[in-house]
Amino acid sequence: MANQELKDKLYRIVFGSETEVGKKFDVVLIIAIILSIFIVMCDSLFRNHPWVMGSFVVLEYLLTAFFTIEYLVRLYCSPKPRAYAFSFFGIIDLLSILPMYLGFFLHGARYMLMLRSFRLIRVFRIFKLFSFLEEGHLLLKSIKDSLHKMVIFFLFVVIVVICLGTVMFMVESGVPGSQFTDIPTSIYWAVVTMTTVGYGDITPVTSMGRFFSTIVMLLGYTTMAVPPAIVTSEIVKYNKKQIRRVCPNCGRIGHDKDAMFCKYCGSDLETSEMIKASKEKNKKEEIESNNQ
Description:
The protein is mainly α. It folds into 3 domains: 2-128, Four Helix Bundle (Hemerythrin (Met), subunit A), CATH 1.20.120; 152-226, Helix Hairpins; 244-291, no CATH class. It is 69% helix and 0% strand. Helix 9 (147-172) packs across helix 10 and helix 9 runs antiparallel to helix 11 (207-224). It is flat, with a radius of gyration of 30 Å. The model has no long low-confidence stretch (mean pLDDT 78).
């Protein structure tokens, strides 16, 4: 019984975002996460200053010990430890502490502590910003639904880039001082140019090559606009599905899928829909009985 009381108390602290002590713990946790990320950034800046590095290493050890204890406490007090361990937050919590221990065996692995930035998602839970999470879910669902279109488009772009790089190689390869020495290099140039990155490490020297580069750049602007358009169309399509609910009282649309009352006339949507469905059913039965 004593162990259960301890688990319940710890659960209210580490998981209870609705309780006062739980909110305070989450705020402390977020401050520790931000401090940890700041230390990793500074660590990369002052690598040549041993005395500064020593201070950062000590702070990293202390914060890692805090996060390790927190993770173990979550496993201990969770009603379903296995479910927590394999949940999104459980995996992120584990990945946020592993890099420090891997750093003892793999040089530079501790810089993967930047994964702790994912834990800042808990700020949505603290400040009740779940509507933002719902928007994120909508975006992920739209990307998932449009994935097959994106794959087809990507394959099309790969084919176009290979052709453009080959044509550019044919135009520039025989010119003295040309940097288009082979087809793979030319394809690399086509990717850089078509994506409008423009490193400038490979440039054409002939008039024909520059004219062709202009066409590729203009083509890149139009091509890069296609993926956002595909995802946006899926978002619009999903939103249309969600807002088709019609108020039986005033006949207007535009209600959220979980809305209980009409935002225009205030009538009860669920009750009105049930009454309307019942009337339609009775009318249909009456027509069928008359026909018989």
